[in-house]
Amino acid sequence: MSGNTGMEQLIPIVNKLQDAFTQLGVHMQLDLPQIAVVGGQSAGKSSVLENFVGRDFLPRGSGIVTRRPLILQLINSTAEYAEFLHCKGKKFVDFDEVRREIEAETDRVTGSNKGISNVPINLRVYSPNVLNLTLIDLPGLTKVPIGDQPPDIEQQIRAMILQFITKDNSLILAVTPANTDLANSDALKLSKEVDPAGIRTIGVITKLDLMDEGTDARDILENKLLPLRRGYIGVVNRSQKDIEGRKDIKAALAAERKFFLSHPSYRHIADRLGTPYLQRVLNQQLTNHIRDTLPGLRDKLQ
After folding, report:
1. Domain tally for the chain?
2. H or E segment to which residue 173 belongs
């Protein structure tokens, strides 16, 4: 599955720190090693995270759905259930209930007018399908206020994302749909501001199956177009129709695998594409990243 077991224990330790800071309300002061997920509004961030878990559990809809940072701690375990830091001791086994709880808890802090707040929701998901991994899901970048959103919603979201990704210890998962021009990617534009050399940014390209016929993203995935030190990984998520029709995530992962193996432009790199590969890479990179940043973190904690 993954490397050194001693190293594997690092992620749960950082999770505990993260919970403690959220409860104390000092979550922004200490620079914890973490992976922040950044992308435009319908880039496919939610689908990537749900595919890791193998369950539908994130709120969906139009407009800004993620309005508070969601610290998602995935923990490999034989049983499958979820827990929220704000509902101590309650085990959620129904993932529809998890979604409703995220919505209710978001409204509790932000009100129901689609405003945003940087107070995180901490959610742990225990499952045999996940590798130990902690991700922070951030609101999608938006351009135009909807309904009674504040007119400066774009600046607010930008400021919140920057708060998480400016820190040297955070890895940035920049999610960009393949059917838009990479040069206009909101996620890459923002990550470039704080990580100009592309050292801590991991590119994820979604919607590869929706590209115009005759076009492909081969140059991007081979890291030739806008190179990142950690490269790009392509994934194929379920379509809106699949989600509404409740297409099983296992079936979706099989379809994704088949897509890469049978596509003339991607066959040769199929073993470095897809959701399971992305999950392994992130687990490995987060573990290495925590190992590298631990000495500095220890000094700060003391």
Report:
1. 1
2. strand 170-177
Give the rounded distance of the alpha carbon of 47 from its chain centre.
9
Distance of alpha carbon 268 from its chain centroid, rounded? 26
Range of the domain at 249: 33-301
Report in angstroms the alpha-carbon separations of 143 from 38, 152, 158, 215, 246. 15, 9, 10, 27, 30
Q: pTM of whole model > 0.85?
A: yes
Structure tokens at 164: 């998480």
Residue 87 lies in a domain: yes
Neighbouring C-beta atoms of residue 212, cutoff 10 Å: 7
Residue 191 lies in a domain: yes
In a domain, 20, yes or no: no
Q: What is the per-residue pLDDT across 10-59, written as a single tens digit (0 to 9) for each? A: 788 888 887 887 777 654 456 678 899 999 888 889 889 999 998 989 98
Distance (Å, rounded) from C-alpha 254 to C-alpha 83? 28
Neighbouring-strand partners of residue 96? none
CATH number at residue 251: 3.40.50.300
State how far the Cα of 247 lies from the Cα of 100, in Å rounded to an integer.
Answer: 20
In a domain, 25, yes or no: no
Q: What is the DSSP letter of 161?
A: H
Helices (H) and strands (E) in the chain, counts: 10, 8
